[in-house]
Amino acid sequence: MAKKFYVVWVGRETGIFTTWDEAKRQVDKFPKAKYKSFKTKAEADAAFSKGASSTYAAKPANTSSPSKSHSAPTSKTSASNADYDVVIYTDGGCEPNPGKAGSGVAVYKNNELSELWYGLYNSYGTNNSAELNALHQALLIAKENLAAGKSVHIRSDSQYSINCITNWAYGWKTKGWKRKTAGDIKNLEIIQASHALYEELKEKLVISHVAAHIGIEGNELADRMSIYAIDKKDVEFCRYPEPIELTGILSLRAG
C-alpha cells in the first residue's frame, strides 16, 4: 500500500501525520474534526497551509478510515481563521536574548480582527519566557470563550511553548516536575499554570504551530504587540486601544 499523509486541521493536535492510527487519535470523537489524506508530502503541506476551509473531510463518529472531502467557503482573512469562532495568535519578543522581553496576542472573532493585547514586560527575560507568557494569556482568553460555547484555536509560532504545555509537561509531572537529566526546568511556574489550563480545556481546544514572519496577519500582529510591550515597558497585560488601525500597527517595529 502506498504511503499517505494525513492533514488534521481541527483535532486534539493539528498538523501532518504519516500514519492513520496517529491521525485518528487526533480526530476520533473530536467535535467537528476536519482532516484529509494526501498521496504526497508536498500536497499535504500545501493543503495544511491553506487551511480546512479550502477542502476538508469531517469525520463521523466511530469510522475506521478517512471520509471523502467536502468543499467549504474560502476565508476572507486567513483560511484557517474561518474554521473557528475564535482564533488567537501569540508571540513573544526579547531584545537581546536574554534581555528585555514582552508578549503579544491577536484575537480574531468570527474571522475578523477583534482585539490586540500586549505587555508582561520583563527587563531580564528570554524569548522562551515571553512566548510562554503569551500562550498562557491565550489560554485564559480561550477558557472564557469556550465557556461561552465558542470554538477556539490558538496559534503559536513557538514549538518550544507548545511542546512544554501539551507534551513535555506530562513527563515532567510524573517525575515530580523534574527533568530526566540534571538541572531545573526553566520557566517552570508559567509552564505549570499553562499546563493546568490546557488539561482543563484540551478536549475542546485546538493548539497548533504557525510559521513566523511569512506574512500571516495574526502572527505579524502578535509579533508587533510583543515588541510594542518592550517599547512601552508595560508589566501588566494591556488591551491595545481601539480603533485598531491595521496599517499603522503593522508598520511598528517587528521582532
TrEMBL record:
Top-level taxon in the UniProt lineage: Bacteria
EC number: 3.1.26.4
Region of interest called Disordered, as start-end residue ranges on this chain: 56-78
Reported cofactor(s): Mg(2+)
UniProt cross-references to PROSITE patterns, sorted A to Z: RNASE_H_1
One Pfam family, short name: Cauli_VI
Gene3D superfamilies: Ribonuclease H-like superfamily/Ribonuclease H (3.30.420.10), Ribonuclease H1, N-terminal domain (3.40.970.10)
Name of this protein: Ribonuclease H
Annotated source species: Shewanella psychrophila
